[in-house]
Write a structure and sequence with these properties.
Layout lengths: L7 H8 L8 E3 L7 H8 L4 E8 L4 E2 L5 E2 L5 E5 L8 H13 L3 E2 L4 H22 L3 H5 L3 H19 L6 H12 L8 H8 L9 H11 L4 H21 L4
Parallel strand pairs: 1-2, 5-6
Antiparallel strand pairs: 2-5, 3-4
Helix pairs in contact: 4-6, 4-8, 4-10, 6-9, 9-10
Length: 241
């Protein structure tokens, strides 16, 4: 499954005739909930946890999609100390397709790490109309990213996921390899006037903060602002009577 979250239900309708007992499904959607949605729709299937990492694709008008890094899939069961037969099958399938992959031992931690990155980097660059370089350089965009990330660390802890400074440092290492003028997917969505994934990012952090009594002011403000950008874009494209 490789669609935006607001297209997931429609995509599952299209997929339904192809799903049987034991069908293995990978979801590369952002956020923490698509696997649960897919598993609820197809209880007969085996939905593995999955995230897509390290790609830098960008749509560029008539030139199509530009990229310098293909990226990889990290996938598996929640615990891959002893990979399951289906995980081994998918590893072989990806090898045959020439696609890079890893299978982390703790896949839930890996998913939360990607969530942390998305909440910080995607939202900060979308709001400031910046590239990856602004996340590395001292300034407002970087400060906003770190503030958003630290709220993720707070809610992750009470959700039983041990994200910490080492995970932030790992993101800094990945960020160092990104092109300075590259755009996150949310920055691209904002520029194109498309619906963003703010509900999956800041919206989820706010909901978890409310659930556990943790203040999440930076993600709340980001959610309001990004929803406002989507609403403004919709007004601009709606014919006036």
């Amino acid at each position: 499954m490789a669609v935006k979250s607001h297209h997931l239900d429609e995509a599952l309708d299209d997929l339904a005739p192809l799903v049987g007992d034991g069908t293995v499904i990978l979801s590369v959607l952002n956020g923490l909930t698509s696997e649960d949605t897919i598993a609820a729709r197809f209880p007969q299937a085996h939905v593995l946890l999955c995230i897509a990492l390290a790609m830098d694709a960008r749509r560029d008008g008539e030139r199509g999609v530009l990229w310098t890094q293909v990226g990889r899939l990290d996938f598996g069961e929640a615990d891959n100390t002893d990979p399951s037969a289906d995980v081994l099958r998918v590893q072989k399938a990806l090898d045959r397709a020439g696609l890079a992959w890893t299978t982390p031992v703790d896949m839930r931690h890996a998913m939360w790490w990607k969530f942390m990155v998305n909440v910080g980097a995607n939202q900060a660059t979308a709001l400031t109309r910046s590239g990856y370089g602004a996340l590395r350089d001292p300034g407002g965009t970087r400060d906003l990213m770190l503030a958003l990330i630290h709220e993720v660390l707070a809610v992750a802890a009470v959700e039983g996921v041990a994200l910490d400074a080492e995970d932030v440092a790992r993101w800094e290492q990945v960020l160092a390899g990104q092109p300075a003028d590259g755009w996150t997917s949310m920055r691209q969505d904002v520029e194109a006037g498309r619906t963003t994934e703010v509900d999956l990012f800041g919206g989820t952090v706010v909901d978890l903060g409310r659930k556990h009594g943790i203040a999440t002011p930076y993600n709340q403000a980001a959610a309001w602002a990004l929803r406002g950008l989507t609403e403004a874009g919709a007004r601009l494209t709606t014919p006036q009577r």
